[in-house]
Amino acid sequence: MDIVVLIFLCSGLFLGWSLGANDAANVFGTAVGTRMIKFGTAALICAVFVALGAVLSGAGASHTLGKLGAVNALGGSFMAAFAAAFTVYVMTRLGLPVSTSQAIVGAIIGWNLFSGFPTDTAALTKIVGTWIACPLLAGVIGVVLFKVTTAVVRWGKIHIVRLDSWTRIGLILAGAFGSYALGANNIANVMGVFVASNPFTSFNVAGIFNFTGIQQLFLLGAAAIAVGIFTYSKRVMLTVGGDLLPLSPVAAWVVVVSHSIVLFLFASRGLEHTLASAGLPTIPLVPVSSSQAVIGAVIGIGLLKGGRGIKWGVLLNISSGWVTTPIVSCLMCFIGLFVLQNVFNQQVYRDASYVISTSVMERLEKDGVATDRLEKLKDQRFDKVREFRSVLADVADFTSDEEAAILDRGKIDYVIVDNSKLWRLEELVSDQQFGVLWPLVGRSYLHPWMLAEDLAEKSDAWKSRPETKANKLFNRRLEQQRHEVYDLFRRPEPRKE
Amino acid sequence: MAIKLFGRTRRLMDDIDDFLALLSESAIGFQEAVITYLDQGASERFDERLNQVGESESRADDLRRTIQRDMYAEMLMPDTRGDILKLLESLDELINKFEETLWYFSSEKPQIPEDMREDYKELLIPTTACVEALVMASRSFFRDVETVSDHLHKVHYYEKEADQVIGRLKNDVFSTDLSLAEKIHLRFFAERIVWISDSAEDVADELMIFAIKRSA
Asked: Which residues in chain B have their CB less than 8 angstroms from residue A167's CB?
């Protein structure tokens, strides 16, 4: 790998390190703080399960972050991760509440503002809504779980010695589950911004499974988290363990389990699949704050006991963190990108070109965008996203959804179906899908959606299904496959002389 | 491994139950021994009772050491382990006090006037009831922590009862024509008996805190 790539990835690794140093304590703090298990054992379990969670289930939450803003140049990804890590560092030093999730979202918005790409308001609303839901949900789960557990303990008249040894085993199991959920949910914070500019390529491991580039990226992030756990989390665990000690061992177990369930809910594609298959509403896959989930659960149990001893100031602090952290991180990222681009001459984003051709207008018409307003721009080409967006704003008052559709359909993203690369898709698409790719070899497309249309015409296996809950997963899988195809066949646009 | 672990947990639980049973037995043994002394003086029967309490005391000591060792092997949470060991230590001291008080009777042989013997017996009732209630509270602490306070208020009730009885008894002692040395001797023995219910109340206070920690 290019050394420059590694240097750029460093900021993500720094963010991973700080996540490992801080958040492992939410999972194993009680067990280690009360010296129930050795730090070494806890760190090993935590590192292994964080890595498993990140590699196996990390894609869901990072997909949502990607929708918020696809940071498309390594320099930009570096600065976004660095701004987030720096914000976390500074705010921690100042004793202010902070979460990596909020910092990275602010940084991505900072990149959007700098590069001129629009911020997906739907994704942003979904993310912010989830931040508020996270501690609330952890509180509710904590209360229910605490009620059930204490009822079982009382009903079974379990001896304190037995209860303690079960709690101990329970804390280790909950810690492993919590680590898995932490890896699955929070790897998006660490490596999410590198997804669009991912330097790794997929490869097949001994013909057994396909190790995708994203998984390699997430494994690297997980390794950084593991280093954070081993080098720094011990002192945090001992502090957290001490803080949580007023809770009974059973309550401490309830807190860890509630935290883990919440992080898992917001990260699990498997659960989303199950809910969608049953026709139930799905839970958005969004990176949330591990610390706030813990605080939510502790406060939930506190309220159940009459609300005495709860520090309400903590709640105010959390809420203020939802606002201040993204703003600080956004500003840092914006300023950092400016410096990186103008002082160090690094590319921080890849600008995009747009054209409103007849076929684009036809396509937009099908998407439900009234194109008569675009007539003035017909066949004009724009080489800067910022310029294109300002022209669009001058021409008509498009809604943010319409603007997103125009940007998506009009974007020039040249792809050519390349015979020499086709074999790489064998593992990623079905035989039926692979079969219809062959006749397209040699064809080129100015917009990727044109290739998608061609494929859909040739086979139903490439056709999106009507947007119902049951079809959601099929469509998303198809969307992923399309992106794999685009990424593989993307080429610089041949310039006309 | 798992079976061994669960077997050890089972044994530890049984040992704790046995220990509490010994405390209860000692309380009854103590009561019987003092009543025997009041009725028959330092008789053979009294010595038997004293020996019984002595045996209970040494068995309790051994059991506490075994429990202590097993607790460390069990890898309980240090906080829980600390509380349990402190509780057992305090309860063990109560058993020691039963034996110690009986030894005072055996060696100093106080001459209790016949008309006061019933008062001394009356003093014994709340004292042993106080310890019995403490044993119940301790059992609850191990199996059903929420009900500990139901038993603890009985401990406080009996302790107060004992204080009232000894107050009356001391007035009676000091209003007799006995010599000052005899009066002080009689007061000393009444105080040795009440000393046990006072100590039981101190243990109850500790237990209350341990229980609050568990139920928090």
From this structure: 77
